[in-house]
């Protein structure tokens, strides 16, 4: 790959990562998201065409068709379901589900790797994008009048939250924040040079400042729990066997504490509204068990138009996912979650075995996915833009690393045996 083309592709990757992790949501009503999706398509077709012409060993059909089939099913089924159930046109709902198009990032990364784009270059561009996103958030936090935005009727009102303890807060790019926190932490401890360690203090200070602004205690606790669980269960293959013993015990403890959790939920502020929303979502999911009620759109009808002004399925965890996408959608979500998690775990094991140290980016993505799995019931984050970007990037980068570490691909084995 020529240097000029490589530089252009690298710059486009930064823009895609910036859009995927919602760095552009603080200006222009998040229209930058569409730019990121368009650039993803551009690089996808560029990589697909040139690998088809020059690479005879790649599993081209699999990498080309997997993303369209997955994305097509989710977008078309959820849009058609809402159109039928709410009696509205399908196109607004189809456009409202466009976030799933970012899944084309996974084959895009692999195609470009096969064309000569190095894994370490992808690594550096991704981390650079995270730093830019955090800097952009800090600037936006001090640029936006949070109180005025909270009481406005525009798009920015959805990005500002308020409570008496923490005041007005601008919603952060949570996935980018968590991944960069984990990444800077492991680089600080793993890098040998004092100068390199000092270099990673700067992003740690940036993410520390953001954590102090948002004071998201539950998110910080979940990330800390993921880091504590890693050396016990996920650091080596033999330790993963402990999960066979621990998971059933954990489920029994969860069931035993169920009544306490329900009581706490029902006695919390706004519990009556949430309880009614959960009941509506669950009953609707039972009425539409296969593909759910579907994806709404502000340009046709919203969920609030159909079910009442305080019904927001995105706040209802896995029950909200069942409401929108049906129990088939929940199954696909769980499969995707554990598929991405297992790829990261295996790649981390292989890399440690070969190099004796963690791959900092893979480890950071693994911590993100572990935290997401721990909070699976309450926050199925992979179904939204930042989670979809993380899943697509994880699948793409692990595929590249598998080949980079010499783990022979199926296509190359086939060519070797038939030649």
From TrEMBL:
Task: Give the stretches traversing the membrane.
Answer: 7-23, 35-53, 62-84, 90-113, 125-142, 242-262, 322-341, 361-378, 384-402
User: Keywords assigned by UniProt?
Assistant: Membrane, Transmembrane, Transmembrane helix
- Reply yes or no: does the keyword RNA-binding apply: no
Task: Look up the domain of life of the source.
Answer: Bacteria
- What is the name of the protein in this document? Uncharacterized protein
